[in-house]
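Feature request, filed as a ticket because there's no other form

It would be nice if the structure record came with a short human-readable summary line next to the tokens. Right now we just get the raw output. Example of a typical job, pasted below so the devs can see what we mean:
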Amino acid sequence: MPERYDRRRMGDRNDGRRLRTVSPVFQLTPFLMRSTSDAVNSFTDRADTDAMEAWLLARRAEGQEDLSLSHVFIAAYIRMLAHRPALNRFVAGRFLYARDHIEVVLSSGRNGEADAGALAVKVRFLPTDTVFDVYRKINAQVGTIKADEAAGRIERLAATLVKTPRFVLRAGSAVIRWLDYHGWISDAWMERSPFHGSVVISDEGASGLPPVSRSLNSMGALSMSLSIGRRHRVTELSRLGEPVERHYVDYAVSYDSRIADSAYVGAAFKYFRHYLQNPAELEKTPERVNDDAL
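Raw output as currently delivered:
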């Protein structure tokens, strides 16, 4: 997958290229399920953290002190797209598109106050990125996620907008939706919009919560959400019938079923689970990166 697909054709958008060779069923489905909320499928799963924790301890001893489970999850997601690029598709204007980039929207609360709100930052990755590339790119923007200056700018803008008459806000949002429907939103807007990206990822475990099965917004073009829950211990029986304590982390995934069928999603998340159990493989670039359909 190139960093940006440069063979632009009539009907392509700023953030993706229209798919014309996919099954007619996939081309028809967006006309039958017009809203993203109509097409959301969700599932929950869990991953054994013992291998991840051992790997993290070794890497932290080498100097990557801030390396965490979240970095492994994000790197596993990116590597999954290298194998199964169709999960980086999105639906806009009733058409199916392949996204030009892998764009991860990281959702983060600013603090524990009820009225503090949340911030989101978008980080762009390549399918060839390793877990260390993920670590470096996220750390480069980690200050932006919770920076008071950035939060202040957002809050000042929100404070101005809420004073605007309601009919003006409704008209403005309708114009934005209309522009997005036709693919006419500018690159500058796309780069900052938390509603346009490959996936939105939140670490609910940092707040002591289980994973949340999120609905996807009808505004924008997000096709997937990944929620990471808190780590917990489970006592299970071994093959010999003896009690064994294991450590798990739960996660929840919501995705737009119009981009791929359940068989494809299931095959993709086999890769995802494999890399969570074998994080050392994420240290190297993938031997092959698959391209999506034309």
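Something like this underneath would help us a lot:
The helical segments are 24-32, 50-61, 69-83, 131-146, 148-162, 166-182, 187-192, 262-277.
Confidence is low (pLDDT under 50) at residues 1-5.
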